Amino acid sequence: MPNPLEFGITIVDEEGKVERFLEKPTWGQVFSDTVNTGIYVMEPEVFDYVEADVPVDWSGDVFPQLMKEGKPVYGYVAEGYWEDVGTHESYVKAQADVLEGKVDVDIDGFEISPGVWVAEGAEVHPDAVLRGPLYIGDYAKVEAGAEIREHTVVGSNVVVKSGAFLHKAVVHDNVYVGPHSNLRGCVVGKNTDIMRAARIEDGAVIGDECLIGEESIVQGNVRVYPFKTIEAGAFVNTSVIWESRGQAHLFGARGVSGILNVEITPELAVRLAGAYATTLKKGSTVTTARDHSRGARALKRAVISALQASAIDVRDLENVPLPVARQQTARGSAGGIMIRTTPGVPDSVDIMFFDGQGADLSQGSQRKLDRVFARQEYRRAFPGEIGDLHFPASVFDSYTGSLLRNVDITGIAESGLKVVVDASNGSAGLVLPSLLGKLGVDSLTINPGLDESRPTETADMRRSGLVRLGEIVASSGAAFGVRFDPVGERLSLVDEKGRIIEDDRALLVMLDLIAAERRSGRVALPVTTTRIAEQVAAYHGTQVEWTTTSPDDLTRVGSEEGTIFGGDGRGGFIVPEFSSVYDGTAAFVRLIGLVARTQLTLSQIDARIPRAHVLKRDLATPWAVKGLVMRRVVEAAGDRFVDTTDGVRVVETDGRWVMVLPDPAEAVTHLWAEGPDDASAQALLDEWAAVVDSAGR
Hints:
29% of the residues lie in helices and 23% in strands. By secondary structure, the protein is an alpha/beta fold.
């Protein structure tokens, strides 16, 4: 060994007899570079030199005594490869030496290019970057855009997401490596989850079954012991041995969200449902529902079992649109649970909890559920108290009947309107047949069937779907076209010319139509909406009540007497006479009635509304400085008007405004700015982005 300080050094004669031996010398004591590897073959009488019940060291006690007595002690000088892997450095070095071919080892896999070994069943995307020598274990999955560099070992069933970077990293089995994460010279134990943009630096060791939160940093030479959680955005520069730096909140913007079978597992679903049941009285009824994905179906079964085992009766709606689940929950249930694929993220799911009105749980109810879940104080039913499970009949007829009784549909049957409806191969298509027939409108429905492989859609998929819808509307001479999201919660519009009405513009169109018809009342809009909405509302004698960006707040105002409309500018519309939550189908029925009675086209309505110039930007912000960022924003506002309805909105004297809002679930700060034109809004964004960036550095 070039550096023998960590070992026992020896000198042997030509016959192999040990002449000198010294355990762990200093450089001043080194007399040889031949070391004792600790592989021994001994005669039984050697144990005569080992005293009972007394700590005895072979190389420190026994061998020196044997040599002192002249006993035959021999050494074999091996010429093969040998490395003591008792330290992180030597363990990583041994992995690299195997990959470099310095060790005579049969690597179990196929050498698909020089030094790049891939085991059976592994799935490596052609657009992944592989720079060997490296090894990818059986049934691992490496996505496009991932980069794996030399001396990296990826274990069995490991998932490496797009944008991840691994160099000299040893990753054990069943690890999830999130998008844009960065692993260098580290070791990661089995069953650990490394979330988006996390960074693990050279010399760090992560134990088994840990969770490394998104955008967290584990510095070099830090040890994170097994079963620990590093919270999102944490900066860890000391070893985590006893404490668990856990996540502060269970709930995010869409309920409890995470990657299917990584963050959201059947075990977690059972515990969540048990905690939720514990917050309700025994014998209460909970309504359950799901979207058309396989993951949601599997998790819902786990949820139902946990609810029944906690003395809760379950009404299972199976696969229904999200608004139907909310409406049915409000019909006699103490609450509800809906499981759906996270919008735009096919490998993630949301577990959504409703109150007795079908709305999302309030902040207080979320905290109560959080506490029960954290303490794991779940209520369990006695055998005679196990809850019932039943499947209500005629759910869609009940929903559409209630909708048509509460929303004004006068003039539709006589109007002769023709509309094109895109169900997006989602659950909205389940309710349309009974609805369209009763409306008496001439309609063409496209993409009506369920597609399990597409439980959600990306922005590009949605855009291309709208373009296709526009082509059909224009060629068929329809009055307009609507496109539902896959769970029927949100709605997108296309005018009679086939042109897409952007979501923020569609909000103004709906606002103009409803305000013109009602001539009084209150409109609920989030503070990020263009102030042109105030002009439109005031022109027709209505007023805007500004809410936070939280759907809970919009729902609260939507349920109050005197509210005639609500929307979020992202395709979510509230029709208060029917429901206080987002409902794409209700918005569709309301829109048909409005167009039928006004005899105006959507393009005519759009043309009479001034153009808005609202721009948005997202900036990465470490969790540790989010509070500092907001303080700096308030300080920079000076004597300008500051609105703190949600985040901080700074209003200039000329009416331009910028809003800075920290994201509650991610290490991101959102900025919105509005001006008389895009250039002025852009300048305002640039100015305040610099304020946020300076505080974040």
